[in-house]
Amino acid sequence: MAQEHVALLKRMDLCRALTEPELVGVAALASTRSVPAGGDLFREGDAGDGLYLIVDGEISVVKRGAGGEHVLAKLGPGGVLGEMSLITADARSATGRALTAATVLHLPAAEFRAQLGAGSLAALKITAAVAEVLARRVATMNGLVLGLAAAAPETTGVRAPMKTQDLAELHRTMHVWSF
Q1: pLDDT of 16-48, one tens digit each?
Q2: Domain that holds residue 13
């Protein structure tokens, strides 16, 4: 099974900087999970137990809010979910729901943190790759925030820019966006 995990990890952008021995070490920590179409990989509010790499299938990231559930993202093969649980012990901020039958590799947070604490170069490389994922998501969110700011309606129905304090509050709210 470990060799199969190595082959799957090689296909993931998150692991592109890892050497073969590093891939073998990470593969030893990983487990494969299958999620049926419509099934939840994890739920908003659950403890963050680790990172998931999508091997096949499609998973939507869903957040509860006013008016029900809202889809934040749809991720396919190579997609990353749950990356923040490698860094923090925060609860899941959204639900990962399979749109189709999906297979994922799970990298457990506790084992990853132990590797990171021991100075594992592989764990450091994965942390750097997670930082890249988060930086791209922040850049995307900044663009969305600016778009919302420009389109925010006043009570008169006339669109006017958001106030700086409103933008700051929206940015603080969106800053915790991760799955």
Answers
A1: 999 999 999 999 999 999 999 999 999 999 999
A2: 2-175
* Longest CA–CA separation in the chain, Å: 63
pLDDT per residue over 45-79, tens digit each?
A: 999 999 999 999 999 999 998 888 888 889 999 99
CATH number at residue 143: 2.60.120.10
Lateral strand order in the sheet of 31-35: 31-35, 102-108, 50-56, 80-81
Helix (H) or strand (E) holding 51: strand 50-56
Q: Which of 115, 99, 117 is nearest to 36 (CA)?
A: 99
The Cα 84–Cα 92 span in angstroms is: 9
Q: Tokens standing for 61?
A: 């990231």
